[in-house]
Amino acid sequence: MKTTKGLYIHIPFCASKCAYCDFFSVSQDTETMENYVNALVKEIKDSSLMHSNDIVDTIYIGGGTPSVLPLYLLERIVNALNKYYHLDLSEFTMEANPSSLFSPQSVKELGIDRLSLGVQSLDDRLLKLIGRRHDSNEAILTLERCGSVFSKLSADLMIGLPTQLIDDVEKSVSTIASLVNHVSVYMLKLSDSVPMAKNILKGAYSLPDDDTFADFYDRTYDLLKQSGFKRYEISNFAKPGYESKHNLKYWHREEYIGLGPAAHGFVNGVRYVNPSDIKSYVAGKNYGNRLAEQIVVAKEDAIFEKIMLALRLPEGLDINAFNNEFQIDFCARYRDVISSLKGILKVKSGRAYIEEDKLLLESAVAREFLI
Amino acid sequence: MDARQDKIRNFCIVAHIDHGKSTLADRIIETTGAVSNRDMKEQLLDSMDIERERGITIKLTPVRMFYNHHGEEYTLNLIDTPGHVDFTYEVSRSLAACEGAILIVDATQGIEAQTLTNAYLAIDNNLEIIPVINKIDLLSADPDSCKKEIEEVIGLDASDAPLVSAKEGINIDEVIKQVIDKLPPPSGNPDAPLRALIFDSAYDNYKGAICNVRIVDGSVKAGDKIKMMASGKTFDCTEVGVFSPNMLAVPVLQAGDVGYIAASIKNVKDTAVGDTITLAESGASEPLPGYKKVLPMVFAGIYPADGSKYNDLREALEKLNLNDAALLFEPETSGALGYGFRAGFLGLLHMEVIEERLEREFDLDLVTTAPSVSYKVKKLNGEMITVDNPSHLPNPAEIDEILEPVVAASIYTPPEYVGSIMDLCQEKRGVFITLTYLDSSRVKIDYRIPLAEIIYDFFDALKSRTRGYASLEYELDGYNADDLVKLDFLLNGDPCDALSLIVHRDKAYARGRRIAERLKEAIPRQMFEIPIQAAIGSKIIARETVKALRKDVLAKCYGGDITRKKKLLEKQKEGKKRMRQFGSVSIPSEAFMSILKFDEND
Questions:
Q1: Are the beta carbons of B558 and A247 separated by less than 8 Å?
Q2: Contact between A222 and A229 (Cβ < 8 Å)
Q3: Chain A residues inside the 8 Å CB shell of B569
Q4: Which of A177-191, A328-342, B39-53 has the highest mean predicted lDDT (pLDDT)?
Q5: What is the pLDDT of residue A243?
Q6: Cβ contact A208:A169 at 8 Å
Q7: Which residues of A touch B566 (CB under 8 A)?
Q8: Which member of A341, A343, A361 has the closest CB to residue B552?
Q9: B569–A301 CB contact, under 8 Å
Q10: What are phi and psi of B323, to 5 degrees?
Q11: Which of A33, A132, B459, B574 is 20 to 30 Å from the Cα of B90, by its Cα?
Q12: CATH number of the domain within which A156 lies
């Protein structure tokens, strides 16, 4: 039986590291990138043997900054995917930065039909603070340039940046809403190791408190709604029909293949992660599904994952599908939890979902479902 | 006169805290060679860590020593005494085991509160007293005025008082010589039936509960069948011995001796301090005087911070109880705290020591409710009940009156603080009794004050208003009726039993408001808004609100985040488990402590 899967490819290169980022990436040099892509092509080839029964319908090339790859290397990857995998694509996304010089037209010609741009903010002061290489002009120009080529265009925005005011948020959001049909809004959350966290510890600046975060988010949501966007996940807003099909797979707990160092995959009920060491990866060691760290997701964990992920979506969990999948009765099993969450979690018309104005409590709600 | 007893001296050392009691004891032990220098720890007699850290003695450790004087070998038994007001009864039993006492006075401080209390206790027990002036090595020492004070205030002849420095080891031999020359030898009847006074007990893993005794009359040896005269229980004596200072078995203990009796006694409660041990057959007809059942004064709920540690807490309390018969506890259930214990203590220090030992020696995290006293409640139907847990107070409609324990408190202070101390006592509902000038620099103020006010924050307030110069002594002095009410705290509309307090009606409003504010700070925001209300009966007297949480979310959750996010949530859930679940409200342990905090502005 053929099954459809998503495919994620990690490109661990960035022109420079942003002050808030703990994603795995290294700075680029052509030789490393070439060796890397060679190794990736090998992984595409090797891994495809295990997926001969799968149809890949969404691809997401993320990073890092995939747009730092020279076009010929990108092309090599796409060719390998076409050659070894059975593709029947409904979406092919690549992440890009406004600062990198690439030709949208050429990228599109490779078959990539959706672009996600890491804009983050349109306030030059904040862009500088968080260590982005672009300024607002460059961002807007890139958005316009890409918008004329790609019908599916997304931008990332950050709220809750140090020293950010609600005016900054409003300006960035309203400008971007007119240039794209998909926006991902991230609330800045720092892991301890990143430069910004260190600056905060030093007292150089502070992060807004949770209420301010919530105000920023609510305002963002309002403005996007006014511009015709719908929220389809906590951090993701799209005009109807422009939701990311690939990302929805994560929240629907569907399976995806992960390629490249530090990439995660979820195949046949197993979650795996590739080692992040590029040297070993390039040398052909320790990569891919066969050798990566693996976690066989036990039934209880699968049940929780399903709930945790579904709660991120406004429509929440499909109770019937859930009951069928796990052969349990959601409402009976979680009767106490459901009643304790009255006013926050709604169970209605076969779905369990967080009330629209309470979606930012998603983690707190999910914790209640942990046994 | 009995030649054997003539060569024995049983004595103790009494002093105000920090006047050098433990140090002098150490020097005497060193001088007599009972303990080699190598084994000498600072302040040997204080064997618990907490005692050494706080500089107080809780557990008594007797020591037997030998000393040659005028060509004769004397046996000296030093019985240490606890140095805190919580343990007054134990002190009195230790004193009763001696014929004499060394009264230490700090040459730089003169007579202080406990100097007097302890001197009077010793006089009450008919002890001969040897005054000793300590710390003469210090520049500010004033031994002459010290002597004068002793003579004027206590009425003891201090002309021969040895001037010593326990710290520097100056003149210690003189103290020992006076002990032998001035203190009377024991004068019990060695041929009478056994009468041994229990002045302390301890638990030994191999020997069971051990009675530390003074043999007053007769003798006892392994193999004797012994009887506790208060409880009537009998045991087979398995071993008798002395403290040298470690336990050393001897063939027999005779009249005048201080030592221990082991009899495979399982429960330390059967070795009540103050009880008399005699022989089961043809024993003494009359016990020694002065036995009193020690009653706890302060009560508090003790709960494990992690509810699943209930059994660990029970075992720990049982273990502590082996050595500390004064600790009482019984299981209790609280709507907010789950399963735990209501424990009774001799006083606040005793409570603190127990808490600290539970946390330190047994590695437990505790939630302790506000300490309470034991109220007598007269109900309208004539029934009289005892309430030591505020949440058990009957419905006000059933109550005729509430009686609370009152103490007779004596406060010793330099005269300049009299005004502010009297203000404080007044605020604490004290009733003035008398004021006595002990000398030009020292005043004793007597008040009757409700015990509940003393245990709340009286001591801290007294110290802060007198810059630490005042000291306090008190003892239970009956019960008084007053206008007392139960102050409840409602979280999300439900009364939280563990937070209830019994307070005077006049203070209820201020306390209620303050505690509601503190609870608001201590309780983290949750998914729902949490109203906090202070109430007397059905009347709400204060209200605060913990606003609902607006954001608890992981902004990004893509393929690589799922496992990590699940782990994070599990960790957070684990952290939340350490909080108390009260209905839909999670309460951190600190919230229960917040009502205990001392605040001069209350």
A1: yes
A2: no
A3: 308, 363, 366-367, 370
A4: A328-342
A5: 98
A6: no
A7: 301, 304-305, 308
A8: A361
A9: no
A10: -100, -10
A11: B459
A12: 3.20.20.70
- The answer to whether residues A319 and A188 belong to one domain is no
Question: Mean pLDDT score of chain B, rounded to an integer?
Answer: 87
Q: What percent of chain B has pLDDT over 90?
A: 51
Q: Is residue A271 part of a domain?
A: no
Rounded to whole angstroms, how far apart are CA atoms B188 and B172?
29
Find out whether B445 and B368 touch, Cβ atoms under 8 Å: no
Distance CA A256, CA A263 (A): 11
Q: At what angle do helices A71-84 and A30-48 cross, to 10 degrees?
A: 10
Apex CA A85: angle with CA A83 and CA A89, to 5°?
105
Q: Do A36 and A134 fall within a single domain? A: yes
Residue A272 lies in a domain: no
Q: Mean pLDDT highest for which of A28-37, B58-67, B134-143?
A: B134-143
Question: Which DSSP letter does residue B550 get?
Answer: -
The rounded distance, in Å, linking the Cα atoms of A80 and B517 is 65
Cβ separation B555–A305 shorter than 8 A: no
Model confidence at B456: pLDDT above 90: no
Contact B301, B340 (CB under 8 A): yes
Tell me whether residues B551 and A213 touch, CB distance under 8 A.
Answer: yes
Q: Which region among A107-111, B393-397, B414-418, B575-579 has the lowest average model confidence (pLDDT)?
A: B575-579
* Most confident of the ranges A16-25, A128-137, B107-116: A128-137
Instruction: Look at residue B476 and tell me whether its pLDDT is greater than 60.
Output: yes
A13, A122: one domain: yes
Mutate: best of A184, A232, A367, partner B, most B CBs <10 A: A367
Amino acid symbol at A118: G
A70 and A203 assigned to the same domain: yes
Query: What domain range includes position A151?
Result: 3-251
User: How far from A204 is each of A207, B275, B281, B351, B435, CA to CA, in Å?
Assistant: 10, 69, 84, 45, 60
Sequence letter at residue A79: N
Q: Annotate A267-293 with b (16+ C-beta within 10 A) or e (fewer).
A: beeebbbbbbebeebbeeeebbbeebe
In this predicted model, what pLDDT tens digit does every residue of A137-166 receive, in sequence order?
999 999 999 999 999 999 999 999 888 999
User: Model confidence at A286, in pLDDT bands (50, 70, 90)?
Assistant: low
CB B119 within 8 A of CB B102: no
For B554, the closest chain A residue by CA position comes to A363
